[in-house]
Amino acid sequence: FGVLLVVHTRGVAGGSKEEARALVQQAMKLNKAQDAKRKGQLLQQAALLDPLNADAVREVAVAAAQDLLGPRLPDDPGHALTMLAMAALQDYRKVAHLDSRRTPPQLCDMLVNIGHQLEGRDRPLMAQEVYEAALRHDPSHANTIGSLYKVREWLCDWEGGGGRVNAFAHLMTLVRQQLGQKGSEEPEVRAVQTSLQPLTALSQAVDARTQLYIARAWTAAYIGGMHKAAKGNRFLMGAKVAKPKDGRITVAYISADLRGHAVSQQMKSVFKQHHKSSKVRVFILNTFAGNPGKDGAEIKGYVDQWVDVAQVQGSTLAGQISNTLRVHIVVDLAGHTFGHRLSALAQRPAPVAMTYLGYASTTGAAFMDYMISDAVVSPPDLAPAYSESLALLPHTFYPLNTQQGMAQGDTSDTRQHHGLPTTNASGAFVWACFNRNLKIKPDIWKVWMALLRKNPSSVLWLRRFHIRVQDNLKKHALKANIQPDRLVFAGRIADRRKHVARHRHADLFLDTPRFGGHSTLADVVWATVPSIVMPGEVMASRIGASLMSAAGGASFVARNLEDYEEVAAGWARVGALPLHAYRHSINASLGALGGAFDSSAYTHVSAPRPPTSFFSSPTFFHLCDTWPCEHDDKPNGCWHVNQTWRVESQVCPHDMNVTHTGTESVAHTHSTGVPCGQTHWRHSWDTQEAECVADLMRRRSVLLPSSCCSQDTRRRATVSLRASRPLTLLLLSSPPLTLLLISSPPLTLPCLPLTHFYISLNIYVHICTYFSLSHTRALA
User: Fold this and answer.
1) How do residues 221-275 score in pLDDT, each as one tens digit?
2) Cα 295–299–301 angle (5° rounding)?
3) Which 8-state DSSP code applies to residue 321?
4) Residue 541 phi, psi (nearest 5)
5) How many angstroms separate the CA atoms of 193 and 222, rounded?
């Protein structure tokens, strides 16, 4: 390449243009991997023969850029290979200009792909160089614009705030054009990969509906209309799944993250509880090609079958799920993240498909029936931003690994060991945030710097990032009149038990509002450390509030950035004693049977009586001991309810532990002792003539929330319901879970009475499986 650059620079050419073209044609016929070296040699020869042969020079430049993916290269824009690749790309620009030909979009696509791979190898600076080179070739290339914006955000490169704002505004204009969106109208579904990827959109100032449109477009691009073409699929045709002979329901989880990954950490306890069930058969469809490690080996011991499908996709995987494994319920743990199999799920390989945990937003997939969430993360008023129907768990949908341990008795694990001020230092207070750098934005950084100014002896403990990220954050701190040495960066600890244990050296964690901590916040809760959280409009911003509310920490939930700063500063003023009191209270409840983080509640069937405090008159339900229940006109030993009652409750939105029955507002304090003084909302409904709870064929009652009605449901016979919500499942109260069905088809229906089911997730799975999907929707 060095000789080639000299030749280009001097304009020396040897041989003929015809020979160069012949070499290029010969090289282009070599597409096999083993011919790559020979192909490169032919192209170099062609470029030497004719330095103005655009095809040869372009291919040589791409090869130089691909060399940046070599192993063990430092992330250095000044590295010889980086400079060589940039020079080769510059050569092609000159040749293309002289040849009066437009840069083919495939070149920019290839460069963007190389940049993405460099990011995956933790070389963001080299990736940035590649993106900038691609943008010089085609300043209007949409995917390059999106990729360059993302890598700058990853590097916390906020220099020139106005330029950053303008760049994002330009990017969102491109995205709306790609979606075909005009104004605030909902665009038609287009199969397009927008400049802003679904996962990247979660960390940016993108509203919930736009996140839905982006996810929907990417899903359509992935599946290519497969779900429409799969006419022979028996589940698409509404066929009823055969009842399992042994009475066990087959549930398959699809994921590439059941290895050394956050998803595997949180799902371990769920799989372990599945292992104890005699009613569910659990399969893992592993899409990760590498070694799953210790976590994968442990999970293998909890499930009935582990199937490696890293090399299987589309219709082949769909056939395996449907015909070979005979899966009843398929649970997607990936969404729009690495290793997803949306192209297979689009073909309806199982009667019920749901998404859970791995991706904190809607998939935008019409073939995904349910999103498992909770009422804090996915409140009903945000339901239109989901393509899935919502199955809401009672406390938090985010499972803690309550079986994990924490390093104990390590005398070397001190604040001083981590570079933090000692506990007895005057005014020493440790703020902490271990969230990824992409989640840190200028607005929350400004709040954090204000907290450091208000507490001169305090420090901010952050996760150790790429060296350029650390340098940029130190620069931002200095501009805010904060000395850079007050930022302490925590290095990686291989031992997970020690990693979780070190969280306890922080006084207060600070969550990132737009894209909050998920597994990070789970570790914080497990370490019994409080965190300031600020739920926003989108799902990715609300998981911290769900975890903290379930942990009895609703007093740490802020409403906006001003409230965030005030709440955090207030806790810092009161000192360590109240914070330690909170730690003691949460430590006593973590993993407690029946508590918010009881892992058995996610999988086990139970049906004791409901809490009588919830009703104005005692009401009892009981499920049959066997399932399915074959009923006729006789009750078959089941409990039945035929009465009317009214439920009126006011739930404090800041503390779900406080509930008042009655019609009047009640002054109260939170469970932490802090006065509330906030406005509450009221839930009010009537029910009558509830059918047998174990006989699904006789279940005809639904709950219509007042937010969907033009007038009170007790006074109006019909309501107009949102067309986009075919079925919403609400799972309420403490374990055992309560299942409420909300039917919202695209038409006006009479208001129907309500049936309460005390039921857990396994029974919910049974309900969905026993009937075909179309039958279930028609039934509701």
Assistant:
1) 998 755 444 444 544 444 456 677 787 899 999 999 999 999 999 999 899 988 8
2) 125
3) I
4) -90, -5
5) 9
298 vs 309: CA distance, rounded Å = 19
At 97-124, the pLDDT tens digits run: 776 566 677 889 999 999 999 999 999 9
pLDDT digits (tens, 9 = 90+) for 735-755: 333 333 333 332 232 332 223
Strand, coil or helix: 732: strand
Please name every residue paired with 743 in a beta bridge, in sequence order, or none if there are none: 727
- Retrieve residue 160's tokens: 């020139």
Start-end of H helices in 455-600: 467-479, 496-502, 519-526, 543-550, 561-574, 576-589
**Residues composing the chain:** 780
Tokens of 634: 């006789």
Tokens of 224: 């290519």
Amino acid at the residue 537: E
- Cis bond upstream, residue 628 (ω within 30): yes
Gap between the Cα atoms of 315 and 665, Å rounded: 56
CA distances from 657 to 167, 608, 652, 661, 734 (A): 44, 21, 8, 13, 11
Ramachandran quadrant class, 482 (left: phi over 0; alpha: psi -120 to 50; beta: rest): beta
Compute the distance between CA of residue 778 and CA of residue 771 in angstroms, rounded to an integer: 10
Alpha helices in 286-420 (DSSP H): 293-300, 314-319, 342-345
pTM of the model: 0.76
- 161 pLDDT higher than 80: no
